[in-house]
Amino acid sequence: MGRPAPFFISADIEKPQNDMTLDIDQIGKGFLDELRTIDSLPALAVFRIKYYGRQKGVLTLLMKELQNKSPENRRDLGKRLNDLKIEMESAIAEKERQLAARELDQRLASEQVDVTLPGNRGPLGHSHPLTQVRYEIEDIFHSIGYSIEDGPEIETTYYNFEALNIPEHHPARDTQDTFYVSDSLLLRTHTSPVQIRTMEKHCPPLRIICPGRVYRHDNPDATHSPVFHQVEGLAVDEGITFGDFKGTLEYFLKAFFSERTKVRFRPSYFAFTEPSAEVDISCFVCFGKGCRICKMTGWIEVLGAGMVNPAVFGYVHYDPEKYTGFAFGIGIERFAMVKYSINNIQYFYDNDLRFLEQF
Questions:
Q1: In terms of domains, do 165 and 224 share one?
Q2: What is the pLDDT of residues 290-301, one digit of tens each?
Q3: Domain presence at residue 119
Q4: Residues 182-200 pLDDT 10s
Q5: 134 and 88, same structural domain?
Q6: Residues ≥6 apart with Cβ < 8 Å to 155
Q7: Checking DSSP bridges between strand 206-215 and strand 185-187, what pairing results, if any?
Q8: Is pLDDT at 238 greater than 50 in this prediction?
Q9: What are residue 231's DSSP bridge partners?
């Protein structure tokens, strides 16, 4: 950026000679010569003040001097002075345009983007740990011929309870356990209703899993959440036995956890399966010896399952004399906590990157 022109008023300008016409001609010539040397917008601003300043501007002083002229000379000199002022203003405006354009070109040249340079890559995210566990479960069952089905999260009491052989006064239907939207609508408490909807649409053979979000009226703590995720499974065909049921779940649990995993089945009760079983796996920490994780039992409960109750087939018009099947329910949070030794289910919902980045 060039240095601004020095600010000075010559004695001739401050005290014009008697021949004011000569002063006007000299000022015009000196103005143009000096304007050519201006090479920046700040210097041009100082230059403008030199000629147009209210107190000691060159043109201002000439205007004041004009008042001392005789009336017969004032008109001619005033016209010449106005013409000079217009020419000077035009010249300054053109110079300002040229300097602004030059500075813009210089700035564009210095700030241009080199498209060949590598970009700044931000950190990439990844799937939530619950989503990763869900995908792993889906992949295992898909590999053995199961399809994936989905259904509404707002369900009717018919599909959520009645069609699953859960009677009207069963404790599971109480408002202390279930979020009701109306007398006949609720937030589904499991994904088993998807099994009923699928059986209504398709005839056996049938092998499906139904992953999704479910809701129960639980107070949040280390092992409970009012919102969590399940994967329900169902297989229906002619001649399916309890041995098929055990073999399928043993294959899945060993594929998900490890080949060293041992599996045991304990008798239990569920309204929509008969016989029913709780399924345990050997503790992945102590491998059955007993530790804090398994509460010194050597076993960890992971899911509930059983053979489909023939009463359920009556709701979907399957012949219970011809078809048999088994069903199971997997808690995704439960499996994630067991697999990764997580002791608080709330970690999955806190959105703490320090936790999520570990997966």
A1: yes
A2: 777 677 888 888
A3: no
A4: 989 999 999 999 999 999 9
A5: no
A6: 185, 186, 187, 188, 193
A7: unpaired
A8: yes
A9: 211, 330
